[in-house]
Amino acid sequence: MSDTSTPGSQTLSRGIRLLEIIAASDRPPTIAELAGALEVHRSVAYRLLLTLESHGLAFRDASGRVALGAGLAALAAGVSRDLQQAALPELNAVANELGMTCLLAVQLDHEEAVTLISASPRQTVAVVSYRPGHRHPITRGGPGKAILLSLPAEAWPDDVDEQLRAEIDLSRRRGYALSHDEVVPSLWSVAVPLTLPGQPPASIAVIHVSLPHEEESIAERLKAAGERISRAYGA
């Protein structure tokens, strides 16, 4: 398919995509790696990076690898501010009570979910870091599958097969989604759907290297947190 976008819109799209690639990388990428991921010449990736650096949205370390800049924190502070204020105290409470990282994810588009807020427990032997902005297919992992629980089947991605449909049906009956070794190797996740007015379909989830509590009790704790978030948000 030919690219019918204007040069300006294409540049903007590439710049946004560059930020997404950096955010999703396990380690800061090089300019050459960014160019490869964007499928553009290295000089194009370099010019895009210079623009992002000038706005504080990206920076290069001493080795030349690229990381997200502090300017993004100022932008992120305004994203769903009311929801963040309502959710963060509950996420912290769940994380510290269960000893598991707790997060709130929202549907990003038809096929992906993104972590909006996360909280790590203060005192635990193993802490799983799951930073805001992490994206993954909505059909994989507890947070994404919990979002599917709140959606009609016709709103699901086209690649939902019969096995996943059966899993979602089971999750609906028990009231929560469960996953292991799907988005991040070896990690477990328990998640429940969260519906708030004026917000995309969402979920609350915990992730950890194991399940230190019965999955049913974890789900009940998440549901209670969801109810408190809804009240604090004014739902």
TrEMBL record:
The keyword Chloroplast does not apply. Residues 9-70 form the HTH iclR-type domain. GO terms for biological process: negative regulation of DNA-templated transcription. The keyword DNA-binding applies. InterPro entries: GAF-like_dom_sf, HTH_MetabolicPath_Reg, Tscrpt_reg_IclR_C, Tscrpt_reg_IclR_N, WH-like_DNA-bd_sf, WH_DNA-bd_sf. PROSITE patterns: HTH_ICLR (PS51077), ICLR_ED (PS51078). It holds the Pfam family HTH_IclR. This is DNA-binding transcriptional regulator, IclR family. Keywords: DNA-binding, Transcription, Transcription regulation. One of its GO terms (molecular function) is DNA-binding transcription factor activity. PANTHER family: HELIX-TURN-HELIX TRANSCRIPTIONAL REGULATOR, ICLR FAMILY, HTH-TYPE TRANSCRIPTIONAL REPRESSOR ALLR. Residues 64-235 form the IclR-ED domain.
